[in-house]
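Task card 7
Instruction: Convert sequence to structure tokens.
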Amino acid sequence: MVVASDSQNLRVDDDGLMTPEVGGWAEEKYRLLALYDELFSKGMKNKWDQRVYVDLYAAGGYSRIQGTSRFLKGSPIIALTVTHPFDKYIFCEEREDLLRALKARVQRIAPHANVAYIPGNCDAEIERIRTEIPKGSSTNKVLSLCLVDPFDFGLKFETLRRLSTVFMDFVVLLAIGMDANRNYEHYVEGDSTKIDEALGNTEWRERWKAVGVRRSDFRTFLAGEFCRSMESLDYLKKPLDRMKLVRSVEKNLPLYYLALFSRNETAFKFWDDVLKYSTDQKNLWD
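Output:
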């Protein structure tokens, strides 16, 4: 097991740039991401000619815990400050103010990093994102790690499908905890296409009605359906207990799953280390 370096400490000072607020649960998410980025970047360093990090919802690079003065590295800065940096970074962000803040932070923190910035919605700009990924060949093996961290269950499976045509692993935040319960009737009985687009199919409703389980099981059902969709892209089949369920700090309510999808078992060896040691590692970040 690799212990994270001091450079991966999550806490940062307010630099005066645009910083979105996040819930207290985000600290656990960033800790898990930082640990996995560290293991992945080092473990793949000598096995691939280029390692590429893709962040589809990059935001501004820093986050502030709501109701506190605690500032944390966001996912782009976490990935930039691993012990063995990636060979290229691709950051997509829809909000112009957040993208400006991210560029300023990257220039200050990692001025020599090879970074491509994609302004706009990742689903609309997917071809630009794909174009920025170096072409792989027999003499230039390229492996990408893509973080999919939307604010809700509004991701588009088609975007992941188009990215999956290259050697790419995904770490996906499935924000289906509160969303699934709050909008249950709208999704199951209504005409919303949100889950259809997130799962990449419309048959899930029939499967849900056929299983005849409790409404409280809807969250785990959707997580299983997303896994089914990723398996259709030849990603390894993994049980739900290989996902990390993150709960709210205040009421301990289930918020989302953090899940890894890979076509290679080696990635899950890293992921299992993250799941096993994430709690024990917490004090190392404080």
